[in-house]
Please model this.
Amino acid sequence: MEHSFIDEERLQSLLDKKVTGSTEVKEILAKAETLVGLSVEEAAVLLNIDNEEDKNLLFETALKVKQKIYGNRMVLFAPLYVSNYCSNNCLYCGFRMDNKEMERRCLTIDEVKDEVRLILEQGHKRILMLMGEHPARSSFDYFLETIDAAYSVRDSKGSSIRRINVEIAPLSPEEFKKIATKKIGTYTVFQETYHRATYDKMHPSGKKKDFLWRLLVMDRALENGLHDVGIGALFGLYNWKFETLALLQHAEHLMSKYSIGPHTISIPRIEYAKNAPCAENVPHPVSDDDFMKIVAVLRCSVPYTGIILSTRESPQMRDKLIDLGVSQMSAGSRTDPGGYSADDSARDHGQFSLNDTRSTGEVIKSIIKHGYIPSFCTGCYRRGRVGKDFMDMAKPGLIKLHCQPNALLTLKEYLVDYADEETRKLGEALIEKELQEIPDEARKDATVKNLEKIEKGERDIYF
Ligand code: SAM
Ligand code: SF4
Model:
């Protein structure tokens, strides 16, 4: 009989785990800096920090950990929604079946290609493909076709999508075996809430009612041919400390059973969505301050994991969270099927409202100004550095040797092919500066040569 690996009682008992004094916090943070990760108990102490001094120390440590593992690159991607039909009724989502005002749409294969072309023209190389769960209107086989279609598109520069990540409803073992043949990157599903009673309340009907089917989805994925999985919780449904600790328990479970932790953790906060009662009236709102703690504690606790932020957050918040450990973010997003092709005034069927509506170009400029390298790298996945191999490199901080130069090479491509004049100047200056930071001389020389090749027209070079 399948059962939950979430120990609710233990997590509840940790929610007010009091800090016994700053020494304990300092010891835990010193441990985090060595990149070994933290236990659920240690993370609970950090989540309960209640004074400025310890909080600042936590934030500084999170940044150090991120820099040690990934350097200062920020991976960018664009979401692509192919269908908003859904037979579930999640109380927080605009796609829910009972939202009769939503205009429903499932893109044709040609429409998918049009969307991908527009995403490519923004400079993106990595997409996250999503849809609602409606086997009759947007079947699993249809979704497989959209993956092939998306990979087949070339834009005016001859560029194509290099990595497709997927976020669709939990699959069966047979479906995982099929999708594993499609060269997808990470497969992601958010548990929404790990709190059983809240989960049952939030999902009154449809297949998503089944808590365990969703909770064990990554076990099925890893047992049936996938290597990189992404987890997440929708913050605002239940106590934020409980969800953060449960995410860590999920990571521990995967690590101990498969030696593969989550490749990414996503931390969406509920945004307003029309006709979705729990998005119009969020049951457990998470303040900006607490949200920053969530990011910093996750970064210290599972240092090898990518932390993903979406355009649900405002530009100001996104800037703050970059410094606390976020390593991937979406840019220029549309959350409605056909949204990239549509005239802005005609769009009203997004899944939820966005707080960062800047174009990809604007996001890139601001990341560079912030001193980070916008990266379109897809090197790991294409070189086969996935699953346990990736974890083995990421844990001791070795992945940076690839991330940093690859970020520079993909930024260079962006600057030559898509950037405006101001961004080009800012970007070239950043590349010059960052080249000096590559510790290995041979890697630095190879990077300089590859940058020259890109300037001359070669593309898609990576370590
Ligand atoms: N239908 C699939 C599913 O539920 O797993 C695919 C993903 S759904 C399109 C993407 C995610 O959006 C959901 O897992 C949920 O966490 C998030 N989401 C739904 N409503 C939201 C809202 N109002 N604000 C922020 N995120 C929301
Ligand atoms: Fe459907 Fe997913 Fe939205 Fe739930 S979260 S209503 S399953 S699209």
Notes: Strands lie at 73-83, 126-131, 163-167, 187-188, 229-232, 264-266, 306-309, 328-330, 373-375.
